[in-house]
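Pasting two entries for a bug report.
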Amino acid sequence: MSHYYATIPQSGRKTTPTARGHKTTGLATIAASYKGAIRVELRHVDGKDLFTVNRIPWQGVGECQVIAEGEL
């Protein structure tokens, strides 16, 4: 059974895409534009569900920066 679940509720698609992740694999997603991207990652460490939100380059544009991290 999946431990993590993600959706893309707003996009150009007619259906809502989904993704699943497990405690062992975690779950990550990237949303991007021509000016950079945001990566959100969920992971399971020592019985806790942790998240990290990073600003990352996309196609050579943008900067690396941790925006937020913590426990869900």
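Entry 2 (this is the one that rendered wrong in the viewer):
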Amino acid sequence: MPFNVWGTLAPNEGQQIIGGDATPYRTIIANSEVITIGDAVQWDAGGFLVNDASVGAVAGIVVGVANSGVPVAPDSATTGTYTVASNNQTVAQIYAIIDISTDTLYSAPADAALGTTTGSNLPGYLMDLLASGSATQLDESTASATTGQFFSWGLDPRNSERVIVNLNERIGNASVS
């Protein structure tokens, strides 16, 4: 299960949503990508969004998919998965709408039982996405007190198999370590 919006650290500000086919909001999805609502994404070397944000800063979390301002229908038999064509970058230019706010809180799953690695179930620790290219799971074994893509606020009180996090290492964020 992907990242689910849980709340916010800044209730008077809301989410910071960007998306489109023109700079500075350019979030065109890379050719042949499969994007799901709740994926953590980043820009590839060509400037197109990919759902593998396992290394480096995260661009944001996908909240929608559109083309020319019109929502795109998800893949058949899904409620939030989108597969773009092999020529999306130049032809359809379908783009993701992403939340770039470091104030949005998410309930996120991990790849192992939280608490297996010291701190992965506690507030104040940081974790990265799963290194296998998963855009939807935290790597429980990366729990650290010093570095990580996501800051943990501890276990989700609604589901102890998930943790509440917000973006820590975000592209364009001056505080990225």
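Dev reply: Rendering is fixed now. As a check, the viewer should reflect this: The two ends are 28 Å apart (CA to CA).
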